[in-house]
């Protein structure tokens, strides 16, 4: 009989911090949460209740032990990918049912329940979000349901602690996973189990398993007779063990090898092995059927169009997996000849990409291209006509056509937009399937009452192409918004303005304002800086809230050109973090010239567009982390590339000094001029107070002086290594002298 391998919660001691019934911390947090949610309608515009115990270190440690340090859903090693989180199988922050109705009270009471806690990688956790579909929505348990009532629910997500997952999901040697079961298909789609980096990691592991199996099989032909290679067998057993990444796939591959040759060496080596016996050996026919079912399921998931603007369309959009941009490829559009942008996707929140670069390096072109490719054919046509866009001028001079190709997570094919030199537009993926907001560098406030709202119910991008089109009238929209939308928007606006969340944003006498010292301060009376932030947040929420109901669950794409414009430095510092906290599921691609706007970004979420030595634009993403850098350090780093933040007169001396340093055979006059420049610079800024420091700084100056001549990154790295060696030698000589003097 087949042995089913499941995660056994009884194998790990119960985390005492979660134990209820003793009047301890768990009871106290439950009572506070119960009080909060009992008056939820009154608290919508205040911050959500913050549970703490389920993230306690003892809980994390217990989950790490229970799931062997692996993501419960995709089996990636948490330590290997560097990030993980405690996930609630039934979401704690509310769910969207099959009809896109928001159920804000599900399933808060299970937040600290041990049986509802799983170790998850950030990618699976983010992809899952607030989705928890059931086979039949009528079986949804009531609020505060008991364990027996929850058992009546039939989730469409596989539970690794309950379901025999590795005999439902079928792993292929190419790293993909498929299924012929509705629950398995839903799990693959919602958790994004075929995301690119995960498929690549599984494929590498599969190759290692198949290589070992092949060597083991070949030993059958040994002239000394069949002998089991115990080293290979032990290696395969390690890869099949519960502690190993992608162990389910490894067990399937071994099981299939046994089934393919029941009397062969592999079967002999793993006879009576419980791990090998735990998995069904899928036939080639079953594998083809599973792949066919997956292809059909994905096609059905991609068949919706937001341009239909019906409740069924919205429901299809919010119930499917999140759609994020994975990569963008641009060819022959304006200054860009060829450019590949890869968007990092490893955060527990939706990824950002901040584009830096000098003027005319194509930053705005990237945003324009993405917007035109994703808005859908109908909206794009209206946009071109209404704004009189000069589409032919987007094509690079001398090229027959320009093209942008965008790959979205979970999509079977990239979305490609091609613009011919005569302005003719053709596109694959013509339907709009992503909520999209796009803003240009000038974001004006509406000056006329009851201004006409641009865009559609699923997208608004006019301001990106025309700076004279204002943002939404925030006060007018808030006055007419439903009560739920108003409360959620009010909470978001207060977060953006760092206003105490307990203060009320109210609608009173035809105005919207903040209660201050017993009186109302209407939004239009706030300074323009405040109003600009409010208008931007309101503009985004006016599109996403009708579909997603709450900003916490909203997903889509926001494009912002020159994100720091109109913002005071204090707001530039917190802009990224504020937007991320308000809209954690919205992906943002933005441009900036402001170093302060990089605060809040993760390593890998910044890219620099640069002109190459032979023309054309290329991207540099191998940038140092900015955590801990001062603003002047960021400006002088590879992010902005300033030589210094010095006074221009001092910088001109450095420029001349560096120019002379680049000379291979300087003349006596040049040498004399260099000495004069050293003295002049030294009077304003020390070039070293002793011989060691002067020699080290001179070596660094020679490197910096010639760096501009080195376009090749490999050659630049070699020169950097040479500099390191020279500095190390200077340092060693100084140490020898010190020791000799002693």
Distance between the termini: 79 Å
Spans of at least 5 consecutive residues with low confidence: none
Q: Count of DSSP helices?
A: 26
Number of strands: 21
Mean of all residue-level pLDDT scores? 85
Rg, please? Answer: 30 Å
Strand order of the largest sheet: 14-13-18-19-9-20-21
Strand content: 5-15%
Class computed from helices, strands and strand pairing: alpha/beta
Largest β-sheet summary = 7 strands, mixed
Cα shape:
globular
Helix % is 40-55%
Describe this structure in words.
This protein is α/β, with parallel strands linked by helices and 742 residues long. The strands form 6 sheets. It has a 7-stranded mixed β-sheet, with helices on both faces. It has a 5-stranded antiparallel β-sheet with strand order 8-7-10-11-12, with helices on one face. Helix 8 packs antiparallel against helix 9, helix 8 (196-218) runs parallel beside helix 10 and helix 25 packs antiparallel against helix 26 (713-741). The mean pLDDT is 85.
Q: What's this model, at a glance?
A:
The protein is an alpha/beta fold. A hairpin with a 2-residue loop joins strand 7 and strand 8.
Key structural traits:
742 residues, five-stranded antiparallel sheet, globular, 26 helices, alpha/beta, seven-stranded mixed sheet
Annotate the secondary structure layout.
Blueprint: H1 25-38, H2 40-43, H3 57-66, H4 78-81, E1 84-88, E2 95-96, E3 102-103, E4 117-121, H5 122-128, H6 147-150, E5 170-171, E6 177-178, H7 182-190, H8 196-218, H9 230-240, H10 247-260, H11 265-269, H12 274-277, H13 284-301, H14 311-319, E7 325-333, E8 336-342, E9 352-356, H15 363-374, H16 377-387, E10 401-408, E11 415-420, E12 425-427, E13 436-439, E14 459-460, H17 462-465, H18 474-480, H19 483-496, E15 505-508, E16 511-516, E17 519-522, H20 528-548, E18 556-560, H21 569-582, E19 586-591, E20 606-611, E21 617-620, H22 631-636, H23 648-661, H24 668-684, H25 691-707, H26 713-741
Parallel strand pairs: 9-19, 9-20, 13-14, 13-18, 18-19
Antiparallel strand pairs: 1-4, 2-3, 5-6, 7-8, 7-10, 10-11, 11-12, 15-16, 16-17, 20-21
Helix pairs in contact: 8-9, 8-10, 19-20, 23-24, 23-25, 25-26
